[in-house]
Amino acid sequence: MIKDIFNGIQAYFSAYTLLNKLNLWRFFVIPIVISFLLGIFIIFTAYGLSDNIGNYIASIWGFTWGKQTVTTISHFIGGLIVLAVGIIIFKHTLMAIVSPFMSPISEKIEQHLLGTVRKQTTGFKAQTSTLARGIRLNFRNLIVEILWIIPFFIFSFIPLIGIIFLFLIFLIQAYYAGFGNMDYTLERYFPYKKSIEFVRKNRGIAIGNGVGFMLILLIPIIGILIVLPLSVVASTVTTLKALHPEKFDKNNRIITT
């Protein structure tokens, strides 16, 4: 799995070149606008809610002594909660909304690398089906991810070992980000449940792609704009390699015949 994680991250270094080579940037205009508007909305909403959550947490402290310290800590905790939840909601909402735009881009990359495409997803009916699948998958992932993160977040306040749980929270967020990106390719190959099984068997690829997604997303403003193009291209390449290992050599280069 470590090798798969490394390959998932490494794919980002060639994603920019592939984006330019295939002239794919133009297909990301609408998704980038959606990403920017959604990101700004969540940032301002999170900023407004952090103090409210912090004040609520502080109100639980029923003593006058140490009130100021507790309030300061509560606001910090409130900010962390809002940040974590905000990223989760942003990630899954964005992936679901832009799914009709991402699938055709994934097809173009597959056509370039393999010379063929498993299944076309053009047309209103196909794109509607893609959107419905994207909403279903990302809603499912959103619920599962939150159920994992809540206990880990609580455990993260344990002295000394708490940092381990923060790291696990990051990996969980990365896994489900990569999961969503992989499905833009997998939807042409597998039905819904089979795709989930495939990602579970190749979770290293999902984590590697998601690590890149999360790190880019943390770049102020710019990250919101470039996270989709880079992560989707990188994910498509690594997913195709997992689906067609016989068509790539040991250095992950396409085998020409």
Automatic annotation (TrEMBL):
Topology versus the membrane: Multi-pass membrane protein
Alphabetized GO MF terms: high-affinity sulfate:proton symporter activity
The entry's keywords: Amino-acid biosynthesis, Cell inner membrane, Cell membrane, Membrane, Sulfate transport, Transmembrane, Transmembrane helix, Transport
Subcellular location: Membrane
Membrane-crossing residue ranges in chain numbering: 27-49, 69-90, 146-176, 211-240
UniProt xrefs under Pfam families: EI24
One annotated GO biological process: sulfate assimilation
This protein's GO CC annotations: plasma membrane
Name of the protein this chain belongs to: Sulfate transporter CysZ
Organism: Kordia antarctica
Gene: cysZ
